[in-house]
Amino acid sequence: SLTKIMTCMLAIEYGNLQDILTVSSTALDNLSEFGSTAGLVAGEEMTLENLLYCIMLWSANEGCNVIAEYVCGDIDSFVALMNRTAQALGMKNTQFANTHGLHDENHYTTVRDLIALSTWAWNNETFRRFATATTHEVPATNKSEARTLHTTNYLTSTDVDSRYYYSNASGIKTGFTTPAGGCLISTATDGDAQYLSILMGCDTKKEGKDMRFVETRRL
C-alpha cells in the first residue's frame, strides 16, 4: 500500500479535490477479499478529497481504481502514468502493475526508490494534509451513511492502538501484503532535525507486536 503515495500524488496533480467521482463496477473488479477497503459500492458518489482520505487513512484499494478512472479514463492508462512518473523521479528499480499495491509479481520497488517518491510527495503541502491526518469524517453519500476513518499508522494516533504512539512522528503510509511483509514510511521531527524512515519486510505479529512501529520508534 506504499503504492498509494503515488496514486495520491497523481490525483492531486491532475485532479480537482472538489470534483465528485462515481464508483464504477470495473473499479471494484479483481480486488482481494482480504484487502483493505472503505466499502465503496458501484454508483456511489464521493468527492476526490474524501476518496483521498479513504486511501491514505484506511488504505482503500477500490478507491485507488476510482481515482485512476477519473484521472485517465481507465486503470491501465493510469498505471502507465504511474510508471512514467516513477521514471521521471529516478525510480529505476520500480514497476507498478496496479494502483493500490495488492500483490503482483510485476509490481515492485526498492527502499532507495521509495526515498525519491516519499521526498517528492512530502514536499507537497496538499499531500501532507492527507498523509498526516489521523482521523476524518466522510459525510454520508448516496449509498452509505457517514464513515469515520482512523489512520492505520499507530505511531501517530492512539485511537485504535495506543501501544506504539510516538509524539515526534507524522505520516506517511503503512502497507502490508504477505510476500512484502509489514511496511511503513514515516517522518519524524526533533527540533530542527527532520527524519524519514522506510521499513519493509517486517513481522506484524512478532510476540503480539507489529514490528513496523516498534522498529521505526527504535530508529
Structure keywords:
single chain, 219 residues, three-stranded antiparallel beta sheet
Tell me the quaternary state: single chain
Task: Spell out the helices and strands N to C.
Answer: HEEHHHHHEEEEEH
Q: List low-confidence stretches.
A: none
Question: What is the straight-line distance between the termini?
Answer: 22 Å
Mean pLDDT: 97
Strand count: 7
Radius of gyration computed on alpha carbons: 16 Å
Helix content: 25-40%
Q: What order do the strands of the largest sheet run in, or round the barrel if closed?
A: 5-6-7
The main pleated sheet reads as:
3 strands, antiparallel
What percent strand? Answer: 15-25%
**Structural class by helix and strand composition:** alpha+beta
Shape: globular
Number of helices: 7
